[in-house]
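Hello,

Following up on my earlier ticket. Below are the two sequence lines again, exactly as submitted.
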Amino acid sequence: MSVTAAKGFQAAGIAAGIKQNGNPDLALVVNTGPRLAAAGVFTSNRVKAAPVLWSEQVLKGGEVSAVVLNSGGANACTGPQGFQDTHATAEKAAASLNAAGRDETGGHGAGTVAVASTGLIGTLLPMDKLLPGVDAAVAQLDVHGGEKAAIAIKTTDTVHKTSVVSKDGWTVGGMAKGAGMLAPGLATMLVVLTTDADLNAATLDRALRDATRQTFDRVDSDGCMSTNDTVLLLASGASRLAPEYGEFAEAVRAVCDDLARQLIGDAEGASKDIRIEVVNAASEDDAVEVGRSIARNNLLKCAIHGEDPNWGRVLSAIGTTKAAFDPDRLNVAINDVWVCKDGSVGEDRDLVDMRYREVRITADLAAGTAGPVVIWANDLTAEYVHENSAYSS
Amino acid sequence: MSVTAAKGFQAAGIAAGIKQNGNPDLALVVNTGPRLAAAGVFTSNRVKAAPVLWSEQVLKGGEVSAVVLNSGGANACTGPQGFQDTHATAEKAAASLNAAGRDETGGHGAGTVAVASTGLIGTLLPMDKLLPGVDAAVAQLDVHGGEKAAIAIKTTDTVHKTSVVSKDGWTVGGMAKGAGMLAPGLATMLVVLTTDADLNAATLDRALRDATRQTFDRVDSDGCMSTNDTVLLLASGASRLAPEYGEFAEAVRAVCDDLARQLIGDAEGASKDIRIEVVNAASEDDAVEVGRSIARNNLLKCAIHGEDPNWGRVLSAIGTTKAAFDPDRLNVAINDVWVCKDGSVGEDRDLVDMRYREVRITADLAAGTAGPVVIWANDLTAEYVHENSAYSS
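Thanks for your patience. The regenerated structure is below:
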C-alpha cells in the first residue's frame, strides 16, 4: 500500500548502513508513468537542507521520475559538500534506474530525481554507504514495496505511517515520517504522496498546497520548524482517468489529514494529543495565529500533561497575539466544559475529564464568523525532554 | 535593603492568609516623600489582570504613594468583581495609611495606590483575608521592611530577589519576584524599584523604559508571557539630589540587570542559564528577534539540558526569523567553540565543555554591525514539566 497503492509506482526500502544500528534507512519511490507530473511543498525555514535546495529545483520542472529518501542524517548545514552529495545521489539513482531499464518513460535524468533526508543536522552523509544503497534499492523495486519504503524513512518514529484513499478507478496514497520538530511550515516530516490520476503538474500543485495548508501546516507538536520538510505528490497517470478538481483535492486532503494525525499521535514523548479549535474569529488568519499561540504555550502543554484544566494559560496565550478580540468576551472550553466565559470564571473546572489521550480546547474569540480552524498539538512531558536531550549523543 | 535601601520609603511583608500554607503573601511599599514621582511598565499581554488595568491608570498621574502587592492569586480573568477587588484594595490601603498618619505628603488617595498580584489565573482573591492584611501591613511598616516585602511576593521562587546600587548620596534599590512564565513583555514578574533621587515622573519613565528594554524584556525563560507583569519605579526625593540622567539611568539599568539575572537563576526546574549573544546583525531588532527565537526553541533547550552542543537546532531556530542573514555565512559558538562556521560544520563539537550552569551561545549573523544583544534563557527539564503540570492542582 502506501506509495504503491496507486498504479504506476514501484518502491523499495532497505538498510544501507547509514544508521549505525542497522535499521532500514534508504527508500526509493519510482514513477513508472506514463506521466511524470509532480508538485512539492518544502520547509519555510530559511536554513534549508541540501536535499531541499536540490528538490526545489527539480520540482520547478514539474516532473519527478523518482524520489530517494534517507533517514540517519539530515544533510543540513553541510555546506557545498552536502549539496554535492545530494547531487551525486540523484545522479546515482538516475544511472542505476537506467541501467536496470526499469521505466516506461524514456530514461531517467538526475534533474527529475528528488532527494529527501532526515536525521541529525550538521553531519555529512556516509556516501560510501548511501550510493551502493541506491543500487540495492533499485534492485529491490517492487509494486508492493510501499510498506518497506515507509519503514525505511523512520527516525524516532515508533510506527511507520501510511494512508490510502481509493475512488472510482483512481487512488491517492502516501507515506510519512515525523515524530518531533513538528511545527507549521511544515513539520519535520518527509511525505511522499502518489496518485495514478492523470493530472498535470499545475493541478497537483494546487491540490497539494490546499491540502498542506489545512493539515500539515496545522500540526504543531513542539513549535520547532525543521530544515528538511518535504511533501511531494507524484502522478503517474496510469489510471488514464482525470477526476474533477474538487474530488481529487478532497482525496489528497483526506490522505494528508490522516497522515498529519498519525504524526501527532506518534510525537516524541507525548502523552496527549491536543485538538485546538478556534471559532468565531474575525478572519482565518486570526484563528490560525491564536491556535498556534495556544499550541506553543509550554506552561499550558505542561498543564495538559498533568490533566489540569488550567484555562488561564489559554487566555494568556491568546493575549500574546494580534488577533481581533475583546478580553472580556473570550470563552474557552476544555473537553466541552466552558471553564471560561466572558473572559472570566465559567463552569466548574472540576467537571473537566482529562483522562483520555485526546484533549479538546475550544477558543471562542467572539469577534466574527471565521473558523472553525483546528490546530493539533501535543503535551510537554518529561519523556520529551529525555528523548531530546540525548538525541545527537 | 531592597525597596527600603533608598531614603523616604517604608515597607512591610506579612502573612494575610491568602496562601493556604500560611507563608507571607502580602507586601506594602510606601513612599514617605517628600516627592511621590513614579513610572511603570506593564505586560504587553492583551489579557491583563485587574491590578494591571488599575495600576496603569494610577501611573498616568505620575504619582504613586504606595504599592500593595500580593502573592497567592493573580486576580486575572476575574471580570468586574476582580477589578472591584483591586479598587477596594487601593481604597483600603489609602484609608489605613491615612488613619495611621504615616506619611509626610498630605494624605493618601486611592488614586495614587498601585496594586500588583501574582499567582493562579482565574480565581478571585479572598478579600476577607486580604483587606485585614492591609491593616496588618500598615501596622508593621518599617524603614527596614524591604526584606520582608521581598519575601512576601514569592510564589514558586526558591529565593527572594533584591538589588541595590548606591552612588554619591543617592540610591536605587528594588525587589523582584518571578520564576516561571518568563518571557519578554515582560516576564511573570513583579518588580518594585525605589530611589531617593529627586527626579520627576518623566525622567523616571525614560530611565525605566531604557532599563527594562535591555534587561527584563530580554529574559525569556520559557516563552510564556504573563497577564500580571508590573515593574514600578518610585522616587521619594529624600536625598534632595538630582543626579544626571546618564548616571541615574545606568544605576536603574544595573539594578534591573541584577534582578533579571536572579530571575533566570531561579527559574522553575531549570538546570542551565543560557546566555544568547547575537552579534553582527543588520539591526538591533534583528538581533533581538534571532535571540528570542533561539531562546524559545524547545529542542535546543532540551539539548542544552543534556549538555549536547547540538548547533543544528540553533541554525534551525535562526532560520525561522525574518532577520537579514545568508545561511551560508552564519557562525555559531557554544561556550566559545565555533562549532558552526559559514553555515556548516566548524570546530570539533567534542571540544565544548557544558558541565557548568551557565552556557553561552554566540550567533554571528555576518549581516551588519548591530549588537551584541544578549538574551537570557533556561533549559527545558523534566523538573520544569513536573512543576508546571501540577501547579493549579
